[in-house]
């Protein structure tokens, strides 16, 4: 059922449509607020509220915008995940060519398609390791909380919550365009993404914010471990530059 973005209670419907251009938003019986005010808001307002980490906007996106049927990831969320991975490839490649070209001479001398496929493989491994570890940590946490009958959740929604709330990674492109301190403060963007991930998972799972952050830190640790193992296996771990080992 649709969900009230203000209090999280279930509602029968989000609006009543009287004609093509005439709708009336439904009020929630629990909090007496509009069940989903974002129906009438454009993307700019939604994006601003995502930047502000408002739980209401994540309830809107996760419960009222995404189909509640099936166990797959929605096609538009999948496309956004692919965009995030390709953007991560670009950022790693940019760091490598800008800051470490002299150090990684043997890598830079490889053909462009080899460089691209190498970094793409690394980014895919990072993505899979992070999502798998977060899913596993959530599963173990729910079993620990209720050993007899752990709460049943859809883990495809966990991945979709992480993907949607990782929109902040796109902010790095502004630092590249404006050359803001040569990406020196890119770690701040990583903290914004971590906070967004925590907000989205807290809204979906109904778990306290601090515990969600702990789960995400485990995911980041697994991502760094996957990076290290991949670079070790491929022989690029002699004094690894920061372009590789980053979260």
From TrEMBL:
PANTHER family in UniProt: ARV1, PROTEIN ARV1
Function: Regulates also the sphingolipid metabolism.
Lineage: Eukaryota, Fungi, Fungi incertae sedis, Mucoromycota, Mucoromycotina
Gene source species: Lichtheimia corymbifera JMRC:FSU:9682
TM region(s), chain numbering: 77-96, 116-138, 158-178, 184-205, 212-233
Protein name: Protein ARV
Subcellular location: Endoplasmic reticulum membrane; Golgi apparatus membrane
GO biological-process terms attached to the record: intracellular sterol transport; regulation of plasma membrane sterol distribution; sphingolipid metabolic process; sterol metabolic process
Domain of life per record: Eukaryota
Record's bilayer topology term: Multi-pass membrane protein
Keywords: Endoplasmic reticulum, Golgi apparatus, Lipid metabolism, Lipid transport, Membrane, Sphingolipid metabolism, Transmembrane, Transmembrane helix, Transport
Entry similarity comment: Belongs to the ARV1 family.
Pfam families per the UniProt record, alphabetical: Arv1
């Amino acid at each position: 059922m649709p969900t009230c973005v203000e209090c999280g209670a279930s509602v029968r419907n989000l609006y009543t449509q009287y004609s093509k251009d005439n709708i009336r938003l439904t009020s929630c019986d629990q909090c007496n607020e509009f069940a989903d005010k974002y129906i009438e808001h454009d993307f700019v307002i939604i994006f601003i509220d995502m930047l502000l980490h408002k739980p209401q906007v994540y309830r809107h996106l996760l419960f009222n915008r995404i189909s509640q049927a099936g166990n797959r990831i929605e096609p538009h969320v999948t496309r956004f995940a692919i965009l995030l991975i390709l953007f991560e490839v670009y950022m790693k490649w940019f760091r490598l060519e800008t800051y470490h070209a002299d150090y990684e001479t043997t890598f830079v001398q490889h053909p462009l398609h080899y460089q691209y496929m190498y970094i793409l493989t690394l980014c895919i491994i990072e993505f899979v390791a992070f999502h798998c570890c977060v899913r596993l940590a959530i599963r173990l946490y729910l079993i620990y909380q209720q050993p007899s009958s752990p709460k049943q959740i859809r883990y495809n929604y966990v991945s979709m919550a992480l993907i949607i709330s990782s929109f902040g990674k796109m902010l790095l492109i502004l630092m590249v365009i404006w050359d803001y301190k040569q990406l020196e403060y890119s770690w701040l963007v990583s903290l914004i993404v971590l906070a967004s991930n925590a907000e989205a998972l807290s809204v979906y799972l109904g778990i306290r914010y601090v515990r969600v952050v702990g789960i995400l830190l485990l995911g980041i640790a697994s991502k760094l471990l996957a990076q290290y193992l991949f670079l070790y296996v491929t022989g690029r771990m002699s004094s690894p530059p920061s372009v590789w080992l980053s979260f």
